[in-house]
Specification:
alpha/beta, 12 strands, globular, single chain, four-stranded mixed sheet, three-stranded mixed sheet, 13 helices, 17% strand
Length: 321
């Protein structure tokens, strides 16, 4: 299993200031870090890049003194009732609320308070059930003997394994993803306008329990994707106050500041409703995307197919066998 999980394992101390672990995540290209409590000598939760961004949103909304973040520990932040009850509240995506297998994925679930993990002996199927059943984005792999964090599993990692082992079984994947019911379509798709501010878009992503959404122009044509974990606005900031001010920038401005010399899993990739599951697998093998935006002939958004959707489809198939 360790051949198909992310590298760069690291963790954040529960008593560090919030600024420090986010510096860790940013510098080694990590989206999350397990939280270690030195008092109890165990992992107690996860800190994600989006958590830090959400805390900045809280300071912007309450007009608090963001410079105090440099002195507040992670434990203090995660014990702040106002923060926990607002920007750090979990909202489950509609796709998970419709899914009977995700019964444990309730709005009260929190990766800050509950630490769920896998071991090196965990099977791929068990890892899928943990991710899907608890509506998780990340699943740390921990060695119980010495509490080392080996890596963190994501849906994209699992999909890479499925593509590697099943892409040659073409006869199984001739149906389109649309006909198979894989993805979110039509009125359930949430989009953003390039003219919206980052604060507005992050709020929409938060209340809908989404990790990203397509960005469209006035004609509804897709022009990009904005991910909740995008740290472009942080990289352009000189300090915490500047980072909070950047939340008022429009998506159009932020997308123009992105690096163009690298390709990330959150880059815009599109398909149509006519694409088969096999063709999606081939495309993933090449680009390792987190999601595909489904478009019509005019490149207007009609749906989203994520790595989570594809893994969930296979999980349902395994459960029916």
């Amino acid at each position: 299993m360790t051949n198909h999980i992310t590298s760069h394992p690291s963790f954040a101390g529960y008593v560090l200031t919030l600024r420090n672990p986010c510096h860790i995540c940013g510098n080694i290209d990590m989206q999350c870090a397990p939280l270690w409590d030195s008092g109890t000598r165990q992992f107690v939760g996860l800190l994600t890049v989006t958590d830090f961004i959400d805390v900045l949103r809280y300071y912007r909304r309450t007009k608090g003194d963001v410079s105090t973040l440099a002195t507040r520990s992670i434990s203090e932040i995660l014990s702040d009732g106002d923060i926990l009850a607002s920007v750090l509240v979990r909202h489950v995506p509609k796709c998970d609320r419709r899914d009977a297998t995700a019964v444990e994925a309730t709005p009260s679930a929190s990766h800050h308070r509950t630490f769920l993990s896998a071991s090196s002996e965990t099977t791929l199927k068990q890892a899928c059930r943990l991710l899907h059943g608890h509506s998780l984005d990340f699943l740390p792999v921990i060695l119980p003997d010495d509490m080392r964090c080996l890596a963190t599993i994501t849906y994209t990692n699992i999909l890479e394994h499925l593509v590697t082992h099943f892409r040659e079984q073409r006869r199984l994947f001739d149906d389109t993803v649309y006909d198979l019911g894989i993805g979110t379509y039509h009125d359930d798709v949430v989009t953003a306008r390039a003219s919206e501010t980052l604060a507005e878009v992050l709020h929409t992503l938060h209340i809908n329990g989404l990790s990203a959404m397509p960005v469209v122009d006035n004609a509804g044509k897709v022009v990009g994707v904005y991910s909740r974990s995008d740290i472009t606005f942080l990289a352009a900031a000189t300090d915490a106050e500047d980072a909070v001010s950047n939340l008022d920038l429009t998506l159009e401005v932020l997308m123009s500041q992105r690096r163009t010399d690298v390709t990330t899993p959150d880059a815009l990739h599109t398909c149509t409703r006519a694409h088969t599951l096999q063709s999606i697998f081939e495309y993933f093998a090449q680009w390792k995307f987190n999601r595909l935006v489904v478009v019509d002939e005019q490149e207007r958004v009609v749906g989203i197919v994520s790595a989570r959707d594809l893994v969930s489809y296979f999980l349902e198939e395994m459960q029916q066998q």
